[in-house]
UniProtKB/TrEMBL annotation:
It holds the Pfam family Glycos_transf_2. InterPro entries: Glyco_trans_2-like, Glycosyltransferase_2, Nucleotide-diphossugar_trans. This is Glycosyltransferase. It is a multi-pass membrane protein. The keyword Membrane applies. One of its GO terms (cellular component) is plasma membrane. GO terms for molecular function: glycosyltransferase activity. Residues 15-158 form the Glycosyltransferase 2-like domain. Keywords: Glycosyltransferase, Membrane, Transferase, Transmembrane, Transmembrane helix. It comes from Oenococcus kitaharae DSM 17330. Its main location: membrane. It comes from the Bacteria. It is found in: Membrane.
Length: 325
């Protein structure tokens, strides 16, 4: 016999969905999610006023009107409209900020609008939260639905980060459950170049994982074209690790040592009176050293740029409209 808790002690869940030009997807994915939430409510696992927070990240299509319609039909569907595109990570931060400030929910599950992450896993996440996990990571156990290119680039990126000492949960993206303590702790991280999946494992707390198969996008195109993906990866590396700076430094040392060897070699050759046609070696070293210096300066500049943007402390997003209960 299952023992039902009294209604008051049921916790309120909010599903947080970042949406950037998702008009093809939302009308399909929202009802699927609503059904799952309703089932959880009916089985008395979450509070009846649990709902949704959809953040339109500067969408230029019908995404926002669709959110407004959904809100009218069911006020448990809430929305935030950004004044422009601030990016996926900032959409998640904004959602968590508003949910926490307005006390809209006890715990939050973030999921992409395209339902590539299996929404059925939400049920297991809730179960694990009720069993005491403060954070539940959604982990995909295959990437069959991703293109060959996306798979290879993603794997390279994660192994590179791992070698630099940034340990992410493998195959976990932004499908996760955060309990109230984790949300409060997360919102203390005020950095501007935020790579959320790197921060969450740093929070501590009891955590668990839910495995699922990643699917194809319901509809529409990926909002991460190659350049945006590369810039996301680059931000992930440079906002988490100074390994590239160290690499440049060690390369510098190697180059300098090589220079010393060359110096000795040239002196010996000269003292022996041999005439060396030194043009090619000179040109080669100029190019190599010059290129290396430019790389070092550029890389240092990247970090200084990051410091610059952190120091300015600009807001990470601007909310133009809110649709709350
Ligand atoms: N997204 C966003 N702002 C952006 C890019 C993407 O809010 O600038 C949202 C998008 O609507 C989706 C999620 O982030 O809900 C993940 O994007 P997508 O599915 O296109 O990425 P992929 O699965 O191809 O990596
Ligand atoms: Mg997707």
């Amino acid at each position: 016999m299952t023992q039902n808790l009294p209604l008051q002690s049921l916790q309120k869940l909010m599903i947080l969905i970042p949406a950037y030009n998702e008009q093809e997807v939302l009308p399909e994915s929202l009802p699927i999610l609503q059904k799952i939430i309703q089932e959880l409510i009916d089985s008395q696992q979450i509070a009846p006023d649990s709902g949704f927070m959809i953040v339109s990240d500067g969408s230029s299509d019908q995404t926002w009107p669709l959110i407004e319609q959904a809100h009218e039909a069911d006020p448990r569907v809430m929305g935030l409209k950004f004044s422009r595109n601030f990016g996926h990570q900032n959409a998640l931060i904004a959602g968590l900020t508003v949910i926490s400030q307005q006390k809209l929910a006890d715990f939050v599950i973030s999921i992409d609008a395209d339902l590539q992450d299996d929404p059925q896993a939400i049920k297991q996440m809730v179960e694990q939260y009720r069993a005491g996990s403060e954070i539940v990571f959604g982990v995909r156990n295959n990437r069959d639905s991703d293109s060959w290119f996306k798979r290879v680039t993603a794997e390279t990126f994660y192994s590179l980060l791992g070698k630099m000492g940034v340990h992410l949960i493998p195959e976990h993206a932004d499908f996760r459950l955060l309990g109230p303590k984790a949300i409060t702790a997360f919102l203390q991280y005020q950095e501007e170049n935020m790579f959320i999946r790197g921060i969450i494992p740093l929070l501590g707390f009891e955590s668990s994982r839910v495995y699922y198969a990643r699917r194809k996008r319901l509809a529409g195109k990926s909002k991460y074209p190659l350049l945006k993906m590369l810039s996301f990866a680059w931000d992930g590396i440079t906002s988490f690790s100074i390994a590239p700076l160290r690499l440049v430094l060690s390369l510098g040392v190697i180059f300098a040592l090589f220079g010393l060897v060359m110096l000795v070699y040239t002196l010996i050759v000269k003292l022996r009176g041999a005439t060396e046609a030194g043009w090619s070696s000179l040109m080669i070293s100029i190019w190599i050293v010059g290129g290396f210096q430019m790389m070092a300066v550029g890389l240092t500049g990247e970090y200084i740029g990051k410091i610059f943007s952190e120091v300015k402390h600009r807001p990470r997003f601007t909310i133009e409209k809110k649709l709350l209960k």
